[in-house]
Each structure stands twice: as C-alpha cells, then as structure tokens.
Design a protein that fits this description.
three-stranded antiparallel beta sheet, Rab3 GTPase-activating protein catalytic subunit, alpha+beta, Rab3GAP1_conserved, single chain, GTPase activator activity, GTPase activation, about 650 residues, about 45% helix
Length: about 650
C-alpha cells in the first residue's frame, strides 16, 4: 500500500491522508499456470480426470511394463517413495480421530456428493492436489498405497483415522466416503468382538468352580448383559423402551423400564415366566399383556444393519427382478421387524400379536376412550388400527412365522467381517475414472470449505460470492455422480470453467482476508477498500478459458484515512532503523537460513513498444510490448562480487 498527503492545496485539505493499495499482478488476472492457489490445482485434477479414461486399471498408469499411454510415462514423473510415505503418515496419523459431533458439523451440502472436510478421503484429495503436480500417475501411485494402508488397518483391527465409528451412513456423501465409514464401523465391531472373546477365554477356567446356585444367577446375569455383545451372536444397543427413528409408525410415547423384572413380578403377585423368558431389558411400567396377568417386558434388540448407497440400489434391483409384491422400504425393514418380533416373543412368552403392536407401534393400537387408563384395569381395552386388522397384513404374517429367540441367539443382521471385506474389494478394484470423478467432487467441495473458513470480517459482498460459488459448483459437478461416466468434452469444459470461477473467488477472498488482517483496527477503511477493489475486479471476472485482454486498467482508487484511523495506517509504514538500512545496502537478495546466498540472479527488464519486430505477438488483441531482459548472474559475497554470466534476450 502507498500513503500520501495532499500537496499544493489549502491548509484544510493538506491535512487529509489518502491510502492507495497496490495489488499483486496475480490477483488481477487468472492464469492456469499460477501454482499458488486451489484453482490451478483443481484445473490439473480435471486434466487428470480427463486422462483417467485412457486405461482400465490404476496400475496401468503406474507400471512401466503396462500397456498404458507412453506419453504419460515420459512427461509425468511419479513422486519418490519418501514423498508418498510422508503424505500417508500424515493421513493415517493415529492421534487424529474424528468424533461424531465434528463429522456432523462438516456434513456436505445435499447438492454436492463429496466428503466432509475433516474426513479421510477429503484429506486424501487435498493432499493429492499438491503431490506430483496432481497428474494421473502421481494420483494412481498414491491411491494404491493409500488402499494398502487401509487394508492394513482392517487386517490388524486398527481404528481408521479421520472417520466416525458410530452413527448412520450419510448417503449424501460420495460412495468412497460411505465405504470408509462402513469400514470404520466394521473395525470397531471387530475389535469389540475380539475383546469379548478374550474375556470369555479368560473366565472359562472359573466356570467349573461355580455352584449350581451361582450358575443360575450367572445365566440370568448373562441375559441382562446382551447389549454388550455384537456380531457373533452378540450385539450392542439400548433397551427398546421407547420408539426409535427407524420405526416408521412410532409415536412419541415413552415407557419407563424397570431393570429388575423378577423382583417386580414377585412384588405384584404375578405368575413369573422367567424360566423361559430370555433377553429382557426390564418391565415396562403401566403396560400389561392382554392374555395373561403379567407385566410387559422390553427386549434387547439388534441394531439395524448399515447400508451404503450401492447396497440400497442392489437390494432394489433384486426386488424388481423378483417381482416383489410389497413396497421396497417394507422389504428393507422386513428382516429388522422379524428380529424385533422374535426378541419380543423371547422376552414375553405369553404375548400375542396385539401386545407387540402396543410396544412396537403404539399408533396402531387404539384404546377405548371410555376406559380409564390404570394399572388395575386388566385386560387393557382397545383394538388394532384398520391397517393392522386386515387379513393379509404382512406384520401378522411375520409374527406367526417368527420364533422366540433373544437377540443374542439370533442370526446377526450385520456381519462386519463380510461387509469389511466387501469394502476392501471395492477400493482395490475401483476404476480410474470412478476414482477421479469422486476426487473431483470432493476436492472442489473441500477446497471451497477450506477457503470459506478464512476470516475476512463482515464483508457482505464476499459472503455473497462464497454462497454463489457453492451454487455454481453443484450443477457443474452433477454429471460426475452418474454411474456411467464418459469423457464428455462438454462436461470437461464445464469443470474447467468452474476452475476459472473458483480462481476469481479465491482472488477476492485473498484481498478480503489481507485487508481484514492488516486493518482489523480500522474496519471501515478495510470495507471501503474492498468495495473499491470488488467493483474494479467484478467486470474482469468471467468463466471463459481464454484470458480477456480488453479490460487491462490499473487499480488507482484512493481512500481517505480518517483521523481515528491514522495511527493504524501509520503502523503499517514503519521506517527502517539504521541497522536495517545498512544491511539493506550490503545484502542483495533474501537470506537463506541466516546466510547470504553464494549465487544470485539479477534481472533487469526494459519494456518498449514493438515496431516491426519478429518477436511481436501474432495476435493483434494482445498488448504489443517488447521486453528486453538482461540477466546477470553474480557470485561471491556483498564485499566481493563478480559477474559470472550475462545474458540478454528479447522476450
């Protein structure tokens, strides 16, 4: 920035201060060769996506003996193993774990199928932008080693970093992120099973010393600990004492569960069925069975199986092929519903279908209005809803066929071993264009989320531009979500134009953040300067891939500095001390590790108009200038300089 005081003016005007920012040329024009921002790196990633259709396997881009494109092998060098190891070490840092709350905060916009910023695949995409100039060979080599590291985590039961281990899979994210989330859950369940198995093996020797009475108590205790078990006939979960989100017809009715069902039954003088009852989480207050004078017990149930987007599609295709007679979502819930019925029968041996409906779907049980609700009113008066009373009701059919099995005795709904191996197989056999398509979506989204975290103060224009950036990215990235991708030239051109838009927004954000940081104590001045630059820069923006040379004006707007802002502005122009001035005379160029470099390059450029020169640009629209460049290479120290080479060129 430059600051000046009015000269040759009235005394009142001479007291005014003006400030005129000086912006870098990189901010005034977008160029694909600019390697300092996300926009240029994203442009290179789009080029890699375009090349990904030239081979069917990622190994073809890496192996020298493979029949891959020869032009790639010669022009694109794979980063050395040290570079790749350093990237993987940072990605798989064991100390970085993504908690569920952080995952929810960074969920992707519904219109863009990427991965949340802090997740493993999003970080892989961001690292890939700066490895080996982001060409296809570097990406392929890094991905192969990335999958090998993921397989090692799976085989050694090591938690996958940067991925949540709980919660449902977010189907609005890209498929690779869904698969990694699935694998993280499988690893966690696998670790829990290993820990339970070791505990069981350690306590096996003590069983022989238990008395018959202790054994009976132990059997009852083991049934109450079923929620700590998982997939080998074991599971984890809370007692089903109230409706959950997976039950589509639940009401907001909640039940109070007593954790001592035997004692509760005996105190109420009820006939106990605990000899056959299994998997009970406790009695439900104020609810009794219809056909026997007993309290209703809430069972432990299995968790609903996790599914990724492609698993839903496969299940739908299988249903369509079999000409299923019921709704797809009903088919999806059938196994879960049967499991819940079996667990309810095991916890309530004397229960009937109406009892299950009262617990599982209270909205389908209509109580008689004239009957006053009380514990002592038995049997409960009411009837099923119309849909549950139909003769061909699917729920009743499933109830009749369900056997009384506690959740710990049932076949698991979710097998982590099988699902984990499926995830590894998917990652290892992913086609190049499928990988690059998801990388492009995730990289655009992660880059936008990263720059959007920049602090730029209260600049409404910048906030609007960031919102517009997300809106323009969504339609440009939409074609990449299709299962059948092709090297469509129109799609590629749209992505490259999106890179240009990203570059312009990135330039605006750079200025906004710089002004906010330098003039944080003078917010009015920062806002006014940015508005001037915004109005100057907007006409230069565009989505064309060719640069527009028609508008090449320089930014020369000045802003008045108010009296209360002068101290802030003055602090930016501190005069050098005597020591600094002396060092500046003898030190030529930047210091390297505190020492002056032994070799320097000094470049003098002379700009002049071109007149009948064969170096002139053939395009008349280009500003015709001749640049005489004098390069002088010197060596030695500031006290002993000598010219080693001098070159003159006309560029």
């Amino acid at each position: 920035m430059e600051m000046e005081e009015v000269e040759n003016a009235s005394p009142h005007e001479a007291e005014k201060w003006f400030i005129s920012p000086s912006f870098s040329p990189y901010l005034l024009e977008y160029s694909n060769g600019n390697q300092f921002g996300f926009a240029s790196a994203l442009h290179l990633l789009v080029d890699a996506f375009e090349m990904s259709f030239e081979a069917q396997f990622l190994e073809d881009f890496v192996s020298a003996e493979s029949p891959g494109p020869d032009n790639l092998k010669s022009s694109m060098v794979i980063p050395p193993p040290t570079v790749r190891d350093r990237v993987l070490k940072e990605l798989f840092d064991e100390g970085v774990q993504l908690i569920d709350s952080a995952y929810d905060e960074h969920k992707t916009p519904q219109a863009i199928k990427g991965a949340p910023l802090e997740t493993l695949f999003a970080q892989f995409c961001l690292h890939s932008l700066w490895v080996g100039n982001c060409h296809i060979r570097a990406i392929a080599a890094l991905w192969i080693e990335f999958v090998q590291e993921v397989r090692w985590c799976w085989e050694e039961s090591q938690l996958l970093p940067r991925m949540p281990v709980n919660g449902s899979i977010d189907l609005s994210t890209c498929l690779i992120n869904q698969k990694l989330h699935m694998l993280a859950v499988c690893i966690k369940k696998k670790r829990e099973w290993n820990e339970d198995h070791r505990e069981c093996m350690g306590s096996e020797d003590q069983i022989d010393y238990m008395t018959e009475e202790e054994s009976a108590v132990g059997d009852d205790t083991s049934s109450m600990q079923a929620q700590n078990e998982d997939f080998s006939g074991k599971f984890t979960g809370e007692p089903r004492s109230f409706p959950t989100s997976r039950d589509l017809h639940y009401s907001d009715t909640a039940f109070t569960v007593s954790q001592d069902p035997v004692k509760d039954d005996l105190l109420n003088g009820e006939k106990s069925s605990d000899q056959t009852r299994r998997g009970s989480a406790g009695v439900i207050d104020s609810m009794m069975l219809l056909k026997s004078y007993q309290r209703m017990h809430a069972p432990y149930t299995q968790e609903a199986p996790l599914m990724t987007e492609d698993m839903y599609e496969e299940r739908l295709q299988a249903l369509e092929a079999s000409n299923g007679s019921f709704n797809y979502f009903a088919q999806l819930e059938r196994d879960i519903l049967t499991s819940d019925m079996a667990a309810f029968k095991a916890a309530n041996p004397d229960a009937i279908f109406e009892d299950f409906i009262r617990w599982h779907s209270p909205a389908d049980w209509l109580e008689d209005p004239e009957v006053e609700k009380s514990k002592d009113n038995w049997p409960p008066r009411g009837h099923l809803s119309k849909r549950m009373s139909e003769s061909d009701n699917l729920w009743r059919e499933l109830w009749d066929r369900a056997h009384a099995l506690a959740a710990s005795e049932q076949k698991p709904l979710f097998d982590p071993n099988r699902e984990g191996e499926k995830v590894i197989h998917y990652l290892e056999t992913l086609r190049p264009h499928q990988l690059l398509a998801q990388m492009v979506c995730t990289a655009f989204l992660a880059a936008a989320d990263t720059v959007n975290k920049t602090s730029y103060g209260e600049l409404k224009q910048m906030e609007t531009k960031m919102q517009q950036l997300y809106l323009t990215m969504a339609p440009a990235l939409k074609p990449l979500e299709a299962n059948r991708l092709s090297a469509d030239s129109e799609t590629i051109e749209d992505l490259k134009r999106q890179c240009v838009v990203f570059g312009h927004v990135e330039n605006l954000l750079t200025v906004a953040a710089s002004l906010h940081r330098k003039l944080v104590q003078a917010p009015r001045l920062a806002v006014e300067i940015f508005i001037d630059f915004y109005n100057f820069y907007i006409p230069r923006m565009g989505t064309g891939l060719e640069e527009d040379y028609s508008n090449k004006k320089e930014f020369d707007t000045k802003q008045i500095v108010w009296n209360n802002e002068r101290e802030v502005v003055s602090s930016m122009f501190v005069p050098p001390t005597a020591n600094q001035s002396w060092r500046k005379v003898f030190s030529m160029g930047n210091l390297l590790n505190g020492h002056e470099p032994m070799v320097r390059e000094i470049i003098f450029s002379l700009h002049d108009g071109v007149s009948n020169n064969h170096y002139a640009a053939p395009n008349a629209s280009v500003s015709e200038q001749e640049i005489d460049t004098y390069r002088m290479y010197i060596c030695g120290t500031s006290n002993d300089l000598r010219v080693s080479l001098s070159v003159v060129s006309c560029d």
